[in-house]
Amino acid sequence: MSNTFVSQFGQESQVTARAPGRVNLIGEHTDYNDGFVLPTTIPQETTVQLTRREGPEVRAYAADLDRRGSYTLGGEAHTGSWIDYLQGVTQELTRDGHELGGFDVRLSSEVPLGSGLSSSAALLVALLRGLRELFSLQIDDVEIARLARRAENGLVGANVGIMDQMACSLAREGEALFLDCRDLSFERVPLPRDVDLVVLHSGVEHQHAGGDYNTRRAECERACELLGVASLRDLPLGDLLRVEALPEPLGRRARHVVTENARVLEAVAAIRSGDLAKLGELFFASHASMRDDYEVSIAEVDLIVELAREQQAVYGARLTGGGFGGSVVMLARLGEGRRVGGAIADEYARRSGRTPKLLTPAAN
Ligand code: GAF
Description:
Residues 268-348 form the GHMP kinase C-terminal domain. The chain is α+β, with helices and mostly antiparallel strands. It has eleven helices and twelve strands.
């Protein structure tokens, strides 16, 4: 059977909604520590098409997997599969008193799974946008991000922070979303025009519902208890000596968060003043901190960052997203991103045996 909406459900879709993937420029593992992040969008998007149907049944088709699934509104239950994203969203909307009816939905995504580019949040935000239109729900874009996070933390079962959902819901191309994760206040910071944003997927997929991410969160909570603060955000750089005196590995974990928050603020200042050399340095420093202090990088990603360092046209490069696989974000001289991204990808593939994917700049 063909994989269009009509061929799956026998009628046209009434609503189409989209949400982009995101790349975080800097500010990693700071969101669940009440800190600062600086994401922007990537060109790849997730698309949902929906039509209302009689009764409480939801029928779904995941085009990329060529899989169908269904459930009944009010009977949402964890299954460990892709349909949990839908179930989580309808469960949270219903909990907030929004009135939904049954619907048919087709999902498709250009954001590669496990790439550290928020395929999950893009799906959740696209779904919420689609349902907002289909059922005339009174929810704004920040509420969409909050609902998406609740769905992911709840029924989906991934204990992630709020950055990805806020980025997929609110970030715009050509601008960074400078977000304070403590109160969700944000500013839009235009990206420098004389730079190419390069995003290269290492071809190694990560898993967030998995243990390593949760271990890092628990380590941060323990560090807070020992330091007597509500969150690591409360510690300025001046407290580093106290932080470093924590038992290992807590000292290094907390040092990453404290220095990373400071780097986000410096990066925003560097973007505003057009200081690309400084911004690049901050990227490399952030990567080193994730690799050595937070220990969320892997050999493949480290190799890409080192290959980027050898390129004259690259200002800076770092692991983006949660880590344990995923993608590298780089800043390159304007007009050179495609060339250096391709050269780094080729050399990386040769040395690692992996299959990298250059997500942006697109070939033209
Ligand atoms: C993942 C999580 F989903 C985010 O909330 C954030 O913690 C990120 O890892 C690390 O900065 O993308």
